[in-house]
């Protein structure tokens, strides 16, 4: 059985002498595991399409529940990500998160579009890396069923929470004096940061990154979005830790 679909490579693993096993996010089937036979050989016609971050139109052959690439047309390679260690690490973090929240036989075109838009913005330096990261993390959680409650304090119903804080485990903004009902850490959130979070949850995909906030609010947004993502997904990400280490190193140079 043949299947033609557009797909983004989230992970590649060497298999045997010249093959690869790829984890890809497709537009119609969700996450898939596919074999790329001979992808490590220079003569392989679809070798470029079997690389990390590559977005291609794949023709797959399925047999006994297993899929392998027969043909591929490369659509976007995001090449600038491969020449900058910080971009590579952050892009890998995006891929790890996409793999963590996606499922087989559960298509989510919005997740794929978010991944593509984020990698494009990162590779072209359309916005600061921390800005792209914050938007990606929060929107990913929204698309995965963890959209936070940002309109009112869930305890007192105040649309303008007094001295607001954001509950990482409860996924809501609430008045500092109102307990969120869920144990865990709550972080301060400024009006500018809260407005940015509200924008991200509701914005159209084409305008998702198109907002500006003061530097202090940008840093606060980054801290909140990252902490919320890790709290809700209940795991860490190696690529995130590596990105932080190389980012700090670059700042010291």
Describe this structure in words.
This protein is α+β, with helices and mostly antiparallel strands and 253 residues long. Helices cover 37% and strands 23% of the residues. The protein is built from 6 helices and 8 strands. It has helices at residues 85-101, 109-123, 129-143, 191-202, 215-233, 238-252; strands at residues 2-15, 19-26, 31-36, 55-63, 66-76, 165-167, 172-174, 186-188. A 5-stranded mixed β-barrel has the order 1-2-3-5-4. The chain has a 3-stranded antiparallel sheet with strand order 7-6-8, with helices on one face. Helix 1 packs parallel to helix 3 (129-143) and helix 1 (85-101) packs antiparallel against helix 6. The termini are far apart. The relative contact order is 0.12.
Radius of gyration: 20 Å
**How much is the average pLDDT?**
93
Mass-distribution shape: elongated
**DSSP E strands, number:** 8
Alpha-carbon distance between the two ends: 54 Å
Could you describe the largest sheet, including whether it forms a barrel?
5 strands, mixed, barrel
Q: Strand arrangement, largest sheet?
A: 1-2-3-5-4
How much of the sequence lies in strands comes to: 15-25%
Helical/strand content category: alpha+beta
Low-confidence stretches are: none
Order of helices and strands: EEEEEHHHEEEHHH
Range of helix content: 25-40%
Total helical elements: 6
